[in-house]
Amino acid sequence: MRVEEFLRSREIRPNTHKAYERDLKQIMDWTPKGWHEITSRDLDRYKNYLKTEPNHRGKLRKSATINRSLAALQSFFKWLTLRDHITKNPALLLEKLKADPVLPQEFSQDEVDNLYQAICDRGFHAFRDRALLHLIDHGLRASEIHRLNVGNYDGQRITIRVAKADSVGTVPLLKKARKAIDQYKQWREQQGDVLENDSPLFVSHSNNSKGQRLQYWGIYKIFKAIAEIAEVENAHPHRGRHTLATRLVMKDMDSALARRITRHASEQSFVRYSDRGIELKAEQEFYEVHGEAPGDGVAEDQPESIQLEAIVDEPSNWPKITSVGMPLNEVSSVYQLKITLLGVRPQVWRRIQVPETTTLAQLHTVLQVVMGWEDYHLHKFTISEDETITLAELLGDDLFPFGYLYDFGDMWQHEIKVEKKLASKLGKTYPVCLTGKRACPPEDCGGDWGYVHLLGVLKNPLHPEYEERMEWVSSDFDPKVFDLEEVNQALKEMEVREGYSH
What's the CA gap between 406 and 383, in Å, rounded? Predict the structure, then answer.
């Protein structure tokens, strides 16, 4: 009865609802005690049971599976305490397991060479894209490149003045990188650009935003286009940072000096690269000792990369915006937006209409609903950091695209294309979803390449991870399905819950 009451009180997605229900039923089957009788020692014993006893398929549970069960217990007992169903929360000191380590994912030397070769097919964009690729190869984050001005480049190095986790500093550039940036600047001047110190270093070439600062999602899109030409799979700009850090370790550079170059604040944050570099260096010397070279055409100074989940640290100092009500009465105009999730094939997209009075904070809430996210993580719009501003104030009649980043770990990049501005229809409820394609990826699945891996596992019942992954996403998950009726019903419920008016 308490479990049913708890689940009814939560605003959660169907898959999360089923996971909570399954996890809470599991502990009910394990103990004869009622919820008010369970102690912190009982929970410690249950945690040990999850770690040591095989599941119903005869396999030991992984850390992620156990931590999901513990999170359900923490949430449930907190709710029982707040609702005065129990007097003391036994889960207050319940600790989750240490996450399984995730290694860096570096590019192989062949992949790096292919990326640079692909620039030759970029035509009009070649000067900009070559300079951009060199900075990615020097370990700069896409968010840092987006903020660069002409004055941040002194002909020898790049100065990073704003970065996550305050990882500011200077990055020395190799000769080829300096040459690429100098050529790009000269090309822009030939196009008629006047380059001042505060001019953006990289600008967009698209018709809608030509000459404006290149945004994060634009950098992401350009890199994906280059990688597609180069036939490099699972490509993401952040992998350039992994590649540089691992390469520095393999070249026997002192870790303190290497951390200065990559701007990692501590050895702890850099250790995954140190371990990976040492591992690859040991493998390389193993072959050399035996008079062999690493096979499959892999270059000696850059062993072949393997498919792993990417590491992108979620900043702790980003404020989370609280959703506010959206007054929808007396709306004269609405914007029609197409939201596309970048990096996922086949594409996941939605087409929606929202009032011109919609603020960015409210648009975030709408995007979470229509895309299918669960609002567990931080987010950011590329168009403005002030989320109290309305779309009418930001856009007016100038229909240009902008970006939306959700989850700084998995880095889900969304392109928001403003398709049209039109008069609202009398009696019609906004916001509304008009159409869309395919289901949203599950939360915390490892970003775009992690999702590719997940889909591959789900298609292969013989895969060693198949049973665990099926249990995690549930059998109801279908990547091809998009339920328009369910989304619009959720939008209506959101309006009521947030106090929206019609």
Answer: 14
List, in sequence order, every residue forming a beta bridge with 418; answer none if it has no partner: 337
**For residues 384 and 404, what is the distance between their CA atoms, to the nearest angstrom?**
10
Longest dimension (CA), the chain: 79
Give the per-residue pLDDT at 164.
67
Burial environment of residue 492 by CB neighbours within 10 A (0 to 12, 13 to 18, 19 or more): middle
Our CA angle for 354, 356, 358, nearest 5°, is: 65
Q: What is the C-alpha separation between 486 and 366, in angstroms, rounded?
A: 14
Of the candidates 448, 417, 443, 432, the one whose C-alpha atom is nearest the C-alpha of residue 347 is 448
Q: Which token pair is 288?
A: 């050399």
For residue range 334-390, what is the model confidence (pLDDT) as tens digits? 999 999 999 888 899 999 999 999 999 999 999 999 999 988 788 999 988 888 899
- Give average pLDDT by consecutive 10-residue segment, the chain, 502 residues: 87 75 91 93 93 82 84 91 91 80 71 89 88 94 91 93 78 93 93 93 86 86 89 85 86 85 77 75 79 53 33 35 39 88 91 93 93 87 88 88 89 93 86 94 86 88 82 79 89 61 36
Pairing of strands 432-437, 348-355: antiparallel
- Integer-rounded Cα Rg, in Å, for the chain is 25
What length does the chain have? 502
d(CA 237, CA 445): 19
pTM of the model: 0.43
What angle, rounded to 10 degrees, do the helices at 63-82 and 14-30 form?
Answer: 90
H helix runs in 290-416, sequence order: 360-371, 391-395
Q: Measure CA 44 to chain center.
A: 33
Q: Render the burial of 148-177: b for 16+ CB within 10 Å, e for the rest.
A: bbbebbeeebbebeebbeebeeebebeeeb
Distances (CA, A) of 483 to 428, 438, 439, 479: 20, 9, 8, 11
The helix or strand, by DSSP H or E, that contains position 267, with its residue range, turns out to be helix 267-289
CA distances from 501 to 40, 328, 429, 492, 493 (A): 45, 5, 9, 10, 12
222: tokens are: 């350009």
Through-space distance between the first and last CA atoms of the chain, rounded to whole angstroms: 36
As a dihedral over the C-alpha atoms of residue 458, residue 463, residue 467, residue 469, rounded to 10 degrees, the angle is -50
Which alpha helices (H) appear in 83-159, and where do they start and end? 109-118, 126-137, 142-147
Q: For Cα atoms 187, 192, 196, give the angle at the middle one, nearest 5 degrees.
A: 85
Euclidean distance between CA atoms 150 and 186, whole angstroms: 12
